[in-house]
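note to self — DONT lose this again. spent like an hour looking for the file last time. sequence + predicted structure for the chain T wanted, 303 res
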Amino acid sequence: MGNKKNIFIIAGMVVLAILAGWLVFSTVKANKAAEKARTEMEQLMLETAQRDLEREYQDLNDEFEQFENSRRYITDDSVKRELNDKYEAARIQVEKLQQELANQKHKSAAEIAKLRGEIDTLRALLRHYVEEIDRLNKENEALRSENTQIKEQNRHLSSQVSETARKNEVLSERMTLAERLNVTGLSLKALNKKGKAEKKVAKAVQLAATFTIPQNNSTPVGEKAIYMRIISPSGQLLGNGGTFSFEGGNVEYTAKKIIEYEGEEIGGITIYYDVNTPLIAGDYTVELFADNFRLISRHFNLN
């Protein structure tokens, strides 16, 4: 009986040992399976995170390229170069990490975190880029507005200057005209050999133009040369007295007279023309000039 009992005890212990071994084996196997599943899940999550970061990087890079046209507003080459260099350096580092991760069978959380950090750097640089462009756009807009105001002010000032110049020109012209000698009472008569009035101009030996110079305090005093031009009915200038300067050219005259003007009225001034060619009846034009002014022009009908 005692031996049988021992046999049963030993058999039971063997069974228990087998069960314990099987239990340990199963537990270890289950733990390994769980560990493998956990590792695979972690790798899947890391790969998903990597792909998400790659998409983020591509989106950021595309967005950066879209600012190519806007970057022309950054006229400061040193600022533009610094921004481009920083972005390019960060972009190269991101692509390097992406390549390293792509070549690795097992992903590292630390490397994924490093990739995220580099992409965050890109994002910060892009944000700075956008802020810089926005600031420069506002500055340019302010400058354009200021330039428009300055141009408008310059146009207004130019208009004022032109108006002032016009007024000064008119005033100068009026002052110049005020200095001109005045002529009143101009007449033209045909004279015979005795110096008397001749009714028939064809018989005249002289033509006499008589006039008065009134008082004019604005006219400079001194010696004045008064030039007379007589135009015949046929349009020919009578006489050959010479030429005088007028408005930048030389003008022929019939006769002239020198007077001394003291600012007071001078009446009965007569300039004579000695007839040296047959005269015909008709309208004669008499013009008087002095000091580069045409003083008067009148028509007279001589029979």
